What does this fold into?
Amino acid sequence: MTTLSRNMSDTGTMFRRVLKHMQRNFGVTILPALFTPILMLVMMLNIFGNSVEDSGNLGSASYINYLTPGLILITAIYGVSGAAIRANTDMTQGIINRFRTMSIARISVLTGHVIGNVIITMLSISVILVLAVLTGFRPVMQADTLLAAFGLTLLMVIAVSWLAVAIGVSSKSPEGATGFLYIIYTVPFLSTAFVPAASMTPILAWFAENQPFSPMIDTLRALLTGGDDGARGLMAVGWCVVLTLVGYIWARLAYNRSSNV
Amino acid sequence: MMIMVKGLRKAFRKHVVLDGIDLNVPQGSIFALLGPNGAGKTTTVQILSTLIRADAGQVQIAGHDLNKEAEAVRAVIGVTGQFSAVDNVLTGEENMMLMANLRQLQPKEGRRRTADLLQRFELTDAANKPASTYSGGMRRKLDLAMSLIGNPQLIFLDEPTTGLDPRSRKMLWDSIRTLASSGITILLTTQYLDEADRLADRVAVLDKGKLVVEGTPNELKRRMPGGHVQLEFADLPTLKQAAQLFDIAWDTHSDSADAHTLKVALTDTITSLRTILERLDMAAITITGLAVQTPTLDDVFLAYTAQSN
It folds into this structure.
């Protein structure tokens, strides 16, 4: 058997294992991913919606159209806790030592978690999108931009999934992993997800403009609702690739390091 | 030889765990690595099962060099560790199938072997329950069954019965014996002497990172002085008489107890026992009781690990 087909076969096995884990702990799997974005949708729309629209920073756009692309990223980010904790549980319980003493494609343990998380997160995002449409979200129905939006969303989800697995693998306990995740959870709040940078104080605006998630959200917003993406499309894809690489390398290093105690 | 180890060394920072170990484990045998906590047993298993790297030394497993052909080694071994390595969320059967798939067995063959092994380890009834609901003994058996699904030539058992109740221990011992009789080589570590005594063809005592003695359980016992005989007398004067005869300073404390007993060392069980009885007879000393204690692996263990302390 070639290395590649071996790798694919083991990754498939590990993915099916992760799928069973997700099924059996369905509440833990899907609720955190959905709860926060739904809360945001309701809260932001009812509490801040009018004042943001009144401020004139959005031009003629409705707030739900402004908010939804940000919610897609929020869903991706809040969905990772399950993957991080599952990866951490694998590392801290005996099963990982069994995998390590077997002749298998080692990375498949991690890839299985990533694929599992990507699929469950894309599902969560679909649910959020349906809710957004029900509350008034109206994307531009144009095949090429919708396809591009889907592609970018997938890249974003892959990036945060690798970061989540890296956090899970490098933490000593599930509690440690959760603590680390809180840092990631706060980053979208300091982005252009909820309000345009123009309405922020200068320091915050500078951070919001330059942090990795803002170009992704801005590009997604331009693709879904039309308008100017500030030529940030390349930057968005670039950040996705960089974060994926960082997550992948970090996860691999942590995985290999812990094996050579 | 299934395992050949020469000059194995490992230190964690400045703490030396293995200080030059040589081991030879013949194919199809049960080899027990015996030692107190912290002697280096688990580290040895971790190195031999490719989990961690040694600092120095040569290891060959089933003819493969451990450092250069780790994947080939992994393909022929099975490992059941001190802390069971099962997936708690999956059922017993799913755990088995996970291993079958990772071992690249055909689905049909995987299912057949899974059913076989679950039956052999009396886990068929629990096959569809999550492993998290299993008792300690069941988990250990599932763990062992998972190690066996890939038809390994060599199994590492790191303290397989630690923490198990006596009944589960006995059942696991039976399974281990059955495995060995089917030709699988077994390297097991244990702190229990009776376990090594009952199971192992050869025993090596590991203490502070060094092998202090190695041999069959009987060889090791034979190397010990021949145990002792405990003589019991009707009263104190007779006891004193006997003590004088054997030139033993008898323990006054033993006299304060009800029994008037005297321990006499045996250099070799049968002949010296006869001599003792003859001498007692000639001196017209009657004994009311007698108990012979042959050396146990305990004596061996204590004697050899005490030397280095």
Observations:
- The mean pLDDT of chain B is 86.
